[in-house]
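Workshop exercise sheet. Pairs work together: one partner reads the sequence aloud, the other fills in the structure field after running the prediction. Swap roles for the next sheet.
Pair: D.N. / O.F.
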Amino acid sequence: MLIAKYLNRLRRLLPLQASAKSRSAGSQRLESFFALCEDPWGADGLPALERALGRRPQPAPLAPEVVDREKDGDLVREKVSYGVGKGCRGSAYLLYQEQPDKIRRPAVLAIHGHGGDFSQGKSKVVRARNTSDTYGYGRGLAQRGFVVLAPDMAGFEDRQLIIESRQTPWPFDPERLLHCGLLLHGATLMGLYLFELQRALDFLCHCQDMVDPTRIAVIGHSMGGTLAPMLMLIDQRVCAGVSAAGLATWRSLLDFAVIHNFGAYLPGVLPGSDLDAMLCQLAPRPLMVIAGEQDPNFPLAGVNALVSSLKKIYAQKGRSENLAIMIHPGGHPFTEEQQSRAWVFLGRRLLRSKSEEVEEAR
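Structure field:
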């Protein structure tokens, strides 16, 4: 919503379709700048995803710790910490139903959105839904029998940037600083996010007395909805995923001048390909895509193009039942109805009956 308000204000000040008289002799269309960048990839086509993600950190020892533990209604909520990279530790909430038996349960990695508020990250995923139409999807999954891990992405909540000195007349933008610093080191913000999410998966797999590592899914809204299927692409441990209000082709973002967070982009994917071609590699793994017709952050044309490609590849593989598409008339929020549909989608693929759980434990 903040992005949409900003764009509307920007469009009033600087109309995208300037008249011929208003254009200076040196003005150029946006596309003309991108044309300068088309040659380097040449016949190479779509670069390997790992190449586009840039340099990746070396993982640090996991060394998991439980920082705090409390009862949250019928759930147990643990604040946990684990090694990510050199000198860097992740912070997350682990949410689950306390059970007397030692049956291993399916787990879901729940990724928070952006929203422009860096003081909130994992908390949005585990709090009660009555605080927002969008929050609480991790809590809902835990109440249905999943073990849920909700990590803070780099720069959010417990992991906000600490800046000891700065010299600039501009308002401080921690995400921009992180993004630019990573570029200077040959890395990308999406690459960092995905690396850290893989470390969160390592933590879940470490919880062997509680989690069945063969039944791990991912869910995310907004920024989290973008990262969820990308994580599936690079890590086969994720067997199913839900993306809510997080997907459209990159081309459509440019066509409609949509400005997203810096972690939503990868270098070198255009013009030879787009996000839909990448995500087609997920078939036939179970995937649910939820999108709003009125979402200002993800143009419907780009959503439809992506969905069309996915439907085609899942049908070709004879697994159309593994692809669920929910295009609703609303906007960006992840509503209770949509969350319920997501829970059912994941439950049918990951939850087992009590008798099956007991038999497996023997």
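Discussion prompt: The chain has one domain: 62-163+171-361. What would you look at next?
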